[in-house]
Amino acid sequence: MPDSIKNDEELQITAPEDSLPPCTLEELPEAMQLACARAGWTRLMPVQAHTLPYLMAGRDIMVQSRTGSGKTGAYLLPLFSLLDAEEKKPQALILAPTRELASQVEHEARTLFEDTGIDVAALYGGVGYGRQLEALRSGVQIIVGTPGRVLDHLLRRTLSLDALRALIFDEADRMLSIGFYPDMKEIQRYLPKRALLSTLFSATYPQHVLNLAGEFLRDPQMLSLSQGQVHVATIQHLYVECGRMDKDRTLVRLMETENPTSAIIFCNTKSNVHYVTAVLKGFGYNADELSADLSQNRREEVLARLREGRVRLLVATDVAARGIDIPALSHVFLYEPPEDRESYIHRAGRTGRAGAAGTVISLVDIMEKMELQRIASFYRIDLVPLANPTDEEVALAAGRRETALLDARRRACTGLQLERARRYLSLVKDMAQSEDEDQLLLLALLLDADYQRSLGMEQSLPRTRAEREAGREEGRRRRRERSDASQEGEGGEKSSRRRRNRKEQGEPVDGAASEERTDAAGHESSSGSPAETPQEGEGRRRRPRRRSRRRSTQDAAGEGGQSAEQTPSSTDVAE
What letter does residue 569 receive in the DSSP assignment? Predict the structure, then answer.
């Protein structure tokens, strides 16, 4: 079992099995001490003191520590004993979620490795490739970068990881929350097959981060340093204070900043369930609802879709709070506090199943906040306030995700597709530099349309009048074709039936009868039809009836076309 001790700073230290004692600055090798002196460090931070022994011993480890606690030094210092300054190839890869963090890590690494012969290069998007390519050609031992740009260089063959010895994930929870996981799995294909020193650093460890650890680390073990509460494989209980009329907007903001893998949103009434579901769908989220109005079969169908990942967000009353086990549920949102305190436990219990991590976020006004605090006090729950996300924070989170998505799409493009796109580069530059808000809004609409498609929306931009008319006309054409095909099928079947009946009765079929009539007359008309005889007159009397049927078919099609104009098509209803 893990050992837990408290140090003088009231940090809760949870060490792995076969734990190693912390070290001091004086116990480090001379090269590391000099590096600390260059950085102005007079002593090791707790996360450094506890982490260094494991990494210096070559053990893969997951480290949980709050932001700003000294994690960067904790994974940079062990590289002194691992990297070879004589080998001018990338030997350590540090992946970070944003270019700001990558730039910060690069700066700290340059300080620590100054005058050691070990060079650092930062690879991130939003800037040109020139300086990055130059740094890679000159030979660097440490690469710090965002997954998208690192993958770009790997695909361009300007970066090789054949000599890699260490792989480090910084702020892995944030990396996953903004959609970099597919890029990281793609990068994994370029890693050496031999064992690497791999480590994961994160402020919190939700379940999806724990799953990631098993894919990149060998037998990963946890080292946790937290203040007050341990954010590992536990449920976080948060609340956001907002006005009652602002809850829908607050919920949408939280969806963007929290970016749950899957979630249940609890409401107290069926009417609120319907309303919240409509709001989420209106913003492009893959949402469904569950309430007492639904039959048992329909409930099972909705829950099955949630478990299979075909529904991301479920809005429900307490009918969904008991007896439902969804292991991958990352978040529970309480649109309003429950009417009794026992229901809070049942609602919160939908996440964090089987020892996994989970997050419960309650949306409360002033009065509801007091009731929620009473519930927390009764159950001794550590209730933590969460700031209502600002529009700027939401825009930043959505922008980062869309940038990652577009970057991935660009890498998947063929040369011809990229050539087509380059036709619009001058237009994009002009629009981006324009002071006209309408011009900027055109670009924003395109980005939002792509982002909504990533959430499951097939069409997020409204269609023009011409497109709507073309859609209606296409619908009418298809209905006419189906009607004609149906009529032709019925007519052909009747003709075949008549021929079979005549054949059974020994009468000649149409072709044979026509041939006999032609022989009896001895000639044909100039039009190629048999010369008129009494038998032919009967045949001619039958043909007008067939023409009449054709006219009735056309009339029916015409009426159908008219009714189609009056009746909205399925695409119109969708709009």
Answer: P
Length, in residues, of the chain: 575
CA distance linking residue 121 with residue 158, whole number of Å: 13
pLDDT tens-place string over residues 88-103: 999 999 999 888 889 8
* Percentage, residues of the chain above pLDDT 70: 75
Euclidean distance between CA atoms 194 and 196, whole angstroms: 6
pLDDT tens for each residue of 2-50: 443 344 345 678 888 888 999 999 999 999 999 999 999 999 999 999 9
> CA–CA distance from 147 to each of 40, 136, 150, 162, 454 (Å)?
31, 16, 5, 17, 19
In angstroms, the CA 448 to CA 437 distance is 16
Q: Is 315 exposed, middle or buried (0-12, 13-18, 19+ CB in 10 A)?
A: buried
Question: Long-range contacts for 10-13 (Cβ within 8 Å, ≥24 apart)?
Answer: 10/227, 10/228, 11/46, 11/225, 11/226, 11/227, 12/224, 12/225, 12/226, 12/227, 12/228, 12/229, 12/230, 13/46, 13/50, 13/223, 13/224, 13/225
Compare 106 and 481 and report the one with higher pLDDT: 106
Query: Across all residues in the chain, what is the average pLDDT?
Result: 79
Answer for the pair 150, 179: CB distance below 8 angstroms, yes or no.
Answer: no
Buried b (16+ CB within 10 A) or exposed e, 349-387: bbbbbeebbbbbbbbbbeebbebbeebbeeeebebeebe
Tokens representing 97? 């979620």
Q: Strand order of the sheet with strand 358-364?
A: 287-290, 313-316, 263-266, 331-334, 358-364, 235-241, 383-385
Average pLDDT over residues 389-398: 90
466 by DSSP, 3-state: which? helix
Integer Cα distance of 34 and 38 in angstroms: 6
Of 181, 227, 232, 179, nearest to 205 by C-alpha is 232
Which range has the top average pLDDT, 60-64, 212-216, 295-299? Answer: 60-64
Measure the CA–CA gap between 61 and 56, rounded to whole angstroms: 11
- Do the beta carbons of residue 140 and residue 119 sit within 8 Å? yes
* Angle at 573 (CA atoms; ends 568, 575), nearest 5 degrees: 120
* DSSP states along 476-490: HHHHHHHHHHHHHHH
- Average pLDDT of the segment spanning 202-208: 72
Residues contacting 485, CB < 8 A, separation 6+: none
241: Cα within 13 Å, side-chain hemisphere: 11
Q: What CA–CA distance (Å, rounded) separates 300 from 302?
A: 6
